[in-house]
Structures are given as structure tokens and as C-alpha cells.
Amino acid sequence: MERDNLMHGARTALNTIPEMREWAENYLKEKTRGENEEMTDEEFEKYWKYHKPEIMHTGAAEAMAAWRSREEREKGRKGDGETRYSASGLGSLSQGV
Q1: Can you give the residue ranges of every domain in the chain?
Q2: Would the pTM of this model clear 0.85, i.e. be above it?
């Protein structure tokens, strides 16, 4: 049940925050491409076109975890003033902690 709640929150965030969705889609596409190195670029693009919805659905929580990890690394490099988003996608958790 907790996994379902996590996935639901991640999917809500991806559907609410376009920047996050674009980043997550690229993250999952690159990850999937790495798992299918034997495919040509053309074969992979066709595969991605038809499997993207399923991959985005099942990988939403993983992509959110990667997003948050990236945000934390960037926050450490840039210092205060960054806006962080909640996993539910309902806005920022903090601004310049």
C-alpha cells in the first residue's frame, strides 16, 4: 500500500510540475536506453514511443527519488534560495531553508 501511495504522489507531482515531468521523462528514457543498448536508435525510438506510458507509470517513484537527490546535490552547491517541491507536487516545501 505504501508503494502505491508513493507512486500516486510521484505521479501527481509529475502531472503538476512540467519541469519535473520533463526531467523525469528524460531520466527514464536515458535509463531505459542504457538497458537496451543492443537496439539501434530507430528501434529504440519506436520502442520508447509505445512503452513510454508504462515506463513513466512504473518509474514515477524512482524518477522522483532521483529528482530529489539531484535537487539536494544542487542545493548543496548553490546554497540557500532554491525552491524544493514536495513529492505530492502540491507546491514548495521550503524556499531558502
Answers
A1: 1-9+25-70
A2: no
